[in-house]
Design brief:
By secondary structure, the protein is of the alpha+beta class. The chain contains 14 helices and 14 strands. It has three domains: about 180 residues, Reverse transcriptase/Diguanylate cyclase domain (Alpha-Beta Plaits, 2-Layer Sandwich); about 55 residues, Orthogonal Bundle (DNA polymerase, domain 1); about 150 residues, DNA polymerase, Y-family, little finger domain (Dna Ligase, domain 1), CATH 3.30.1490. About 5% of the residues have low confidence.
């Protein structure tokens, strides 16, 4: 018999929007929408006052404005959100060292064992909520379950500012009536396929004949049934080495001019290199990501969809270096070379630069004949200036690329 686990999922409530309302009292009680103000902007967060009108994160800004014409649109202040995120995650660390950050505002905590120090999982969860409130004056929703899946779903159901404890005996009744889209990995296409089989809830999946489900879905069917039943053995991973580090941006207007492309790639390469140095990695492979600006249309088997969905073709080009690097100029040179070789003939809406095949700098072979490395020393000097005076204090002379859709993810090196 396996030992009982206690996994806690903590998720800040309307994080970006709540910070804006906290810092600007005149916004309290009003429908605040962070991001989405530009032509191609995407909503990064919406206050609960805005959600009443149907506004959600990841929604196009024009759609949010149509749903909530009196909404207050606020430009994202990522530095501020990251600062508050550090306070939140510091509060989490007071309750267990086993923390898996998911985003600036969200994390899994394995509190197995440590819950006894706080009087049980309920008392720990209550103390954690209060600690976050004391440090940030913000609310967090918390749920505890026997695994990550159950804790995540219970946390979502408890929002906002909720607390829920799910015992093993309560897992089945909790999950059974929920729609299949609640499961990780079940997107619109798979949900439509399940619906054609008559499977609309998690209980339907659990009760369906396993052999028939394997014939319909392949080997993933067994994993799907296990998750639908609330069986999830994935551990909380507190230290996870990154597989890649990248930066990208969507342009307000499609671009093709090489000068604008070069400026974007320079800015992205510089940021990627900065994050490489902060995490102590060097990269062997540079990848250029290109999203074309002319939409194609593709009919998707979407649940509730009644039309075609625009699709913007995505291209990637990669090059593996002879020697690994954390130098922004080298990364930029490779990315720009990949752009030139791609011979793109139509304007693009998005460009990104990422690096992969990461290795620790201390294990990488450096220049055999040189004791000093001026490029790296320059990068470290730039990092020191930014750490002291702010991210925008110094950098490539290409201007600032405003993020059309800022991310909630916690990025390696930030």
């Amino acid at each position: 018999m396996s030992a009982l686990r206690f996994v806690l999922h903590a998720d800040m409530d309307a994080f970006y929007a709540s910070i804006e309302q906290r810092d600007h009292p005149e916004l309290r009680g009003r429908p605040v929408i962070v991001g989405g103000s530009s032509a191609r902007g995407v909503v990064a967060a919406a206050s609960y006052e805005a959600r009443v009108f149907g506004v959600r994160s990841a929604m196009p800004g024009f759609r949010a404005r149509a749903l909530c014409p009196d909404g207050v649109f606020v430009s994202p202040n990522m530095d501020r959100y990251a600062e508050v995120s550090e306070q939140v995650h510091a509060a989490f660390a007071e309750f267990t060292p086993d923390i898996e950050p998911i985003a600036l505002d969200e994390a899994f905590l394995d509190i197995t064992g440590s819950e006894r120090l706080f009087g049980g999982p309920l008392a720990l969860a209550q103390s954690l909520k209060q600690r976050v409130r004391d440090l940030t004056d913000l609310s967090v929703t918390v749920a505890v379950g026997p695994n990550k899946l159950v804790a995540k779903i219970a946390c979502t159901l408890a929002k906002p500012n909720g607390l829920r404890i799910v015992s093993p005996s309560e897992v089945g009744p909790l999950l059974e009536p929920l729609p299949v889209r609640r499961l990780w990995g079940v997107g619109p296409v798979l949900a439509a396929k399940l619906a054609r089989l008559g499977l609309k809830t998690l209980g339907d999946i659990v009760r369906y004949d396993s052999r028939q489900l394997i014939r319909e879905l392949g080997e993933r069917a067994l994993e799907l049934q296990a998750l639908a039943a609330g069986r999830d053995s994935r551990p909380v991973i507190s230290e996870r080495a990154p597989k890649s580090i990248g930066e990208e941006s969507t342009f307000e207007v499609n671009v093709l001019e090489r000068e604008l492309v070069s400026a974007a790639l320079t800015a992205h390469a510089d940021e990627v290199a900065r994050r490489l140095r902060r995490t102590g990695y060097v990269a062997h492979t540079v990848t250029l990501k290109i999203k074309l600006g002319q939409a194609r249309r593709r009919r998707e088997a979407r649940v509730g969809s009644d039309g075609d969905e625009p699709v913007y073709p995505l291209l990637t080009r990669s090059k593996t270096l002879r020697a690994p690097t954390d130098d922004g100029r080298m990364i930029r040179q490779v990315a720009l070379g990949l752009w030139d070789a791609a011979r793109i003939q139509e304007p693009v809406r998005l460009l990104g630069v990422s690096v992969s095949q990461l290795g620790g700098r201390e294990r990488s072979q450096l220049d055999l004949f040189s004791g000093s490395h001026p490029k790296r020393e320059l990068g470290l000097a730039l990092d020191a200036i930014r750490d002291r005076f702010g991210r925008e204090s110094i950098g490539p002379a290409v201007g600032h690329l405003e993020k059309v859709s800022p991310s909630l993810r916690k990025k390696s090196g930030d």
